Amino acid sequence: MPLPWRQWPAEARLMLAMVALWSGVGLLVLASASWWVADREMGDGAFYLKRQLVWMLASWSLLWLALRTSLRRWFHLAPIGLLIGLLLVAATLVMGSTVNGASRWLVIGPIQLQPSELVKPFVVLQGASLFAHWKRSGIDQKLLWLGVFAGLILLILKQPNLSTASLTGLLLWLLALASGLSLRLLAGAAGGGLLVAGASIALNSYQRDRVISFLDPWRDARGDGYQLVQSLMAIGSGGVLGEGFGLSTQKLQYLPIQNTDFIFAVFAEEFGYVGSVVLLLFLLLFGYVGLRIALSCRSNMQRLVAIGGTSLLVGQSILNIAVASGAMPTTGLPLPLISYGGNSLMASLLVCGLIIRCSLESGGLAAPPRSRRRSSPSGGPSGPGA
Are residues 289 and 11 in contact, defined by beta-carbon separation less than 8 angstroms? Predict the structure, then answer.
């Protein structure tokens, strides 16, 4: 059970406060970005906001569960969660709901599940478990879990969802780097990843069109480049201080998917250059606090969870902003805790809870009794970290 609030490490308290601020601002930005389209399509301007509030409550319950559950137990659940996620991603290829040419969702009654989002926390946990014990693991264990990760990435590519597949591969690569794997192995993995991504772009015409439109969106401003052109116009219209909260014009009928993948463009138009810089500084501070938590961890497994979780949230945010500002080809990555979508929200807040739990256990005070009796400061849930 976690310590009373006053006894929490400073990094844990600051991280929780930042997550709460991030969530609150995200709801405000979503309300502004979605109100007009919700009123036009659903007859209720608060339609998306109400649904997001329900998902927010459920997601904060997951965060609280993460705080009250030992990392030892999460590591035991990680293989099961990862394998279930793998099967659900595979199920989207057979019985998934297809939207914009991609089969990424499973519809269960009124609920839409996106397994590629929900599996992310378990990728962090199992990746940390694998690479923390890499030197002491047998070749069979290494091949097993590398095969599972490779299968997951290939299935996500098959949906097709290059952005999430690339993010998953990059996340695992960063975990391997942080664990101290040899540069030769890392270089080989990076090269293989680039080849797979190149092959995916070559085989999927819509991905090639996105790359071409990214290089020169104005060449076909009313076709393939329309989305990026409107996003750039929204960001440019914000100027230095922005148009003001709720006063974006691009969100009215010009900017597509303005409440999900391109919500940053609405934010930039309403809060301008200053607001965008403040958001980037916030992400920088979040990354710094996450790194401080990682450095304070006693075991390699905990350290890798903190590094992986922080890299996932900050990295995905930077990638989303880069897409909206034309620095990267258009992808389908949401902006964590801000874009509309319950699956991304639940995964993101569960990851936040795991990072904070790492901080609570860093001094051994929040760990279960069995963990407190261990004398080795480098011991993980199943033994000393490698």
Answer: yes
